């Protein structure tokens, strides 16, 4: 059996447990999910939507002002009916800054 949690970049950045309801979109359309852990380089989304390793998705992260910030991500691994691990891609400087500040607030807790 292949260990799904192995891999060269697995946990290359410190991850933090969270519970953040998000929307995400893949080839099959928009879905709801919950981010269960996050780092500056990626996250794990609990959901039942259809994805495959290597697929690209959009993830909308809610902000406190009611708006959302969109991230593009590549599916690094998926578990049917549980969710997927995604690596953020093509991040702008503003998105990188947002993730760094957000993760820093989790580190302080």
How would you summarize the topology of this molecule?
Layout: E1 16-26, E2 29-38, E3 42-46, E4 56-62, E5 68-79, E6 83-89, H1 93-108
Antiparallel strand pairs: 1-2, 1-4, 2-3, 3-6, 4-5, 5-6
Summed up, the helix count is 1
Q: For the largest beta sheet, what order do the strands appear in spatially? A: 1-2-3-6-5-4
Strand content: over 45%
* CATH topology tier name: Thrombin, subunit H
Q: How many individual β-strands?
A: 6
Q: How many domains make up the 3D coordinates?
A: 1
- Quaternary arrangement of the chains shown? single chain
For the biggest sheet, the summary is: 6 strands, antiparallel, barrel
Q: CATH homologous superfamily name? A: predicted glycosyltransferase like domains
Just give the CATH class.
Answer: Mainly Beta
Structural class: mainly beta
Describe the fold and architecture:
- The chain is mainly β.
- The chain has a single domain (16-108), classed as predicted glycosyltransferase like domains (Thrombin, subunit H), CATH 2.40.10.
- The chain contains one helix and six strands, in the order ββββββα.
- It has one helix at residues 93-108, and strands at residues 16-26, 29-38, 42-46, 56-62, 68-79, 83-89.
- Strands 1-2-3-6-5-4 form a six-stranded antiparallel beta barrel.
- The longest helix is centred in the C-terminal third of the chain and has 16 residues, at 93-108.
- The radius of gyration is 13 Å and the shape is globular.
- The N and C termini lie far apart (37 Å).
- 23% of the residues are buried.
């Amino acid at each position: 059996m292949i260990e799904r949690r192995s891999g060269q970049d697995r946990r290359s950045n410190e991850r933090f447990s969270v519970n953040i309801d998000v929307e995400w979109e893949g080839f099959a359309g928009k879905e709801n999910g919950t981010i269960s852990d996050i780092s500056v380089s990626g996250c794990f989304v609990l959901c039942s939507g259809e994805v495959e390793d290597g697929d690209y998705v959009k993830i909308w992260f809610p902000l406190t002002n009611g708006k959302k910030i969109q991230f593009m991500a590549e599916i690094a691994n998926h578990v049917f009916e549980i969710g997927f691990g995604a690596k953020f891609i093509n991040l702008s400087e503003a998105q990188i800054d947002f993730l760094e500040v957000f993760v820093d607030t989790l580190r302080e807790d």
